Amino acid sequence: MPLVPANGVLHGDKGYDSDRIRRTVEARGSLPNIPPRKTRKWKNCFSPYLYKGRNVIERMFGRLKEFRRIATRYDRNAGNFMSSLCLAATVCYWL
Asked: What's the pTM value of the predicted model, to 2 decimals?
């Protein structure tokens, strides 16, 4: 289950469109913003404007996975992995 961001809206793709996941997200006190599947008879509320922010996150993970050390997670220690992740993010977005 993905973590809920600070604003209380969980963005997910169509793969997370199930009643069980929606109930779990709502029980944790946040709102699910998940596009409905084509086969769903009852369409839930969905905001395409808020969903566009999810694309930014997906692109960030794509850029970070270009670094082999991050994608394969060579570091066994969580502190070392976090430091290499911060270094990769700095190189990726500063240069």
From this structure: 0.58
